[in-house]
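Please check this one:

***
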Amino acid sequence: MKDWHLLLKSRNHAEANIILGMLEENNIPVHILNKKDSVYHFGDIEIYVPITLKDIANNLLNNALLN
């Protein structure tokens, strides 16, 4: 994933889905890498965006967290 930037790691599926929706609403392509273990429920969900859009994605995420 050379051309992708790790935007966020989350352990919460709902949080990851909300952020995914927000990014997609703003036409930012997203890749999700689910590293959660399905039996023991530990691990992270990683959200990646294109490197060229990382600043825009970070601004959207920061603004959403402030509201």
User: Anything to note?
Assistant: Strands lie at 4-10, 31-34, 45-50.
